[in-house]
Structure prediction request, 552 residues.
Amino acid sequence: MTDIEMQSEIGIMPAPRVLIVDNDESAVELFENFLSIWGYTAVVAHGIGTDLVDDAILKAREHRCQLALVDMRLIDNFDSDDFSGLELIEKIKPAATIIASGYGTLEIALNCVEKGAYDFYEKGGNPKVLKEKLEKAAVKVCAFRRQWNVKPNEMLKVITDTLFGETLDKDFHDQVLDVLGRLFPHAEQLRLERVNSGSEGTGYSTAPRPRSVVMRVYEDDLEPVIVKMARATKIIKEVDLFQKYINHRLRENHAPVMEGHVELWDIGAIKFSYVGSIEETFGRFIFSQPVDKIQRSLEHFFTRTWASHYEKARQVEDVSLFGLYCDVWDRNWHSRAQTCPPPVPDERDENFWHQKFVQNPIEWLEKIAESEGSEFDRSLMSATMTAVTHGDLHSDNLLVDNNQNSWVVDFERCGEGHALQDFIELEFDVFTRITSARERISNYFDLCLAVATAQRIDESLPENMLFENETRKLLEIISIIRRLAVQCTGITDAREYMLGLFFNTIFRTTLMTQNRQDRSLQRLWMFANILCQRIEHWDETWPPAEWKRTSL
Prediction:
């Protein structure tokens, strides 16, 4: 299979796009002809003076140019102090710029490179020299010019569909391979393998990652690395948060090392080394290992690896938990929640559903949002703890090495938040991994009641021998997570914990496709309903008399 044939699996790869910025029309025409002959797509900026500069910035972004040919003097050819072309270099990145000028001296060429130009070409020189410089730059920044093999093709399609979806322009999907090319500049072969989880044999992740993909990448015969691909803005944010909260701040070296990152016009990627020999994600680990090993793994992460962050936790007073979670997730999650319609119960469950539930969880959330910070805010805490949290601690972001030590990836939401957040998020993810779609609605209802019953976080969960063995195991894991939450944060009030679970449940529903018949969505809505009613009637007998325990 040739390079172009391989690339065609994710669409026809367009020729590299080269921005031409020059105030000399004859030079522009000459460059256009050369680029056409050499197999590039020319994008020409128009205008005079500052209008030319502004149009160049616009055209570079509009066409997602990978390369640029820029005249050094764009405003005034006779002004020796006109370095407007050099000033443009930063403004049109990530395009790699070759400065083209008739004023070619070694000093000027070196100055161009110091200002960030990829190379310098003296106008009037041999066109073959320009061609060689373009080819050299193209090989570095454009996958189109690379002689390499990236597989499997199906994974490339998954990445493209995930990152470009319905919102990004698919005409520029070549950024996927360009990102990989820049991240692995010397690779002859890359093998991509998605970091995936879910219950044994499902083959899918239960934790939605909108517009991002986390994968193992094997370069040639080297050991794998972890790569996350996402929107460029998200990668920029994650790099910053990693440096601020993770790098050299976790104990026992159980944190990945950032080996590089790339940001193009729309998408980017970040590359991490492994901490140790990888075995599996925590999502698979909890299904394949006994409870005692799972407990040791969780204890290692929370009481050792992440312990320094909990030791620096601080007490805050009169704070809205809703506000704390919005700080981590962004308030867009609340906006999305407002548009979520209630699910339509399966006809087999309809009578049971209507007998049990009268509360609309979205309306209950809205009351909290409207009263945020006031005495009527149901999530207002007179005192709680905040700490640096991972912020997205689901079972696909927690990896387990061959010694059962856990470590994390994906730091996009890392920062100060509710000290219980990581425990709550991990518990919620474990809870949703219970194969609820296979269980009768009555049995699932009992399960929700069990999770929502405790008055103290570390209180033992009610036992129900009607649960399947897999469900009882996951409830044991939830109990372990809660005990560790108390140990690490000192917080014992389960009401605070239930509020976090409620927010997580609604947050997850906002990330799902809003198919009102979707069984998973129905179950999440049920759990949210139970949680908000549990919190609303916290000091009353639980469960309510009308919610008589069900049986098989």
Remarks:
- The domain at 278-536 is CATH 3.90.1200 (Aminoglycoside 3'-phosphotransferase; Chain: A, domain 2).
